[in-house]
Design brief:
By secondary structure, the protein is of the alpha+beta class. The chain has a single domain, classed as Beta Barrel (Small Protein B, Chain: A). It has four helices and nine strands; from the N terminus they run E-H-E-H-E-E-E-E-E-H-E-E-H. It has a seven-stranded antiparallel sheet with strand order 1-8-9-2-7-5-4. The longest helix has 22 residues. About 20% of the residues are buried. The mean pLDDT is about 90.
Length: about 150
């Protein structure tokens, strides 16, 4: 059985933040949540991660309710537990203690075994001038590509 490709990304993450360490984590989901995600009905644009009592949780991740679900359907914006190793959680906890640091999801994907995984990154916010510099570099690269194409 070929698993369909899940392509749910946080496109604004690299523009809004300086990304440092990246971790791959599993997500604890219910049946209707995974069915909605496999249908592509999820968004991580406004999501972020927190550390609570030695566990890492993802907040504000929107998973649309499953159309064929019954009364046992899930809540669209519930907190969901991320499955990480103890060493990874300790590293994340140390990073989050520094003011201005955050943990954001970058991408949702299926592993080779068919498990849903999320790529999360330790990040610090960019200033306005950093964002402008990124836009300038992007425009310059686009102009060079156009010139080479001709």
């Amino acid at each position: 059985m070929a698993t369909p490709e899940i392509n749910i990304k946080n496109k604004r993450a690299r523009f809004e933040y300086h990304l440092e360490d990246e971790f791959t984590a599993g997500i604890q989901l219910s049946g209707t949540e995974i069915k909605s995600i496999r249908a592509g009905k999820a968004s991580i644009l406004e999501a972020y991660c927190i550390e609570q009592e030695g566990e890492v949780w993802i907040r504000n991740m929107h998973i649309t309710t499953y159309a064929n679900g019954s009364i046992y359907n899930h809540q669209p914006r519930a907190d969901r537990k991320l499955l990480l190793n103890k060493k990874e959680i300790e590293k994340i906890t140390k990073f989050l203690k520094i003011k201005g640091n955050t943990l954001i999801p970058i991408k949702l994907f299926l592993s080779e075994k068919g498990w849903l995984k999320v790529l999360i990154a330790c990040a610090t916010g960019k200033k306005l001038h950093d964002k402008r510099e990124d836009l300038k570099l992007k425009d310059d690269k686009r102009e060079m590509d156009r010139a080479l194409k001709r």
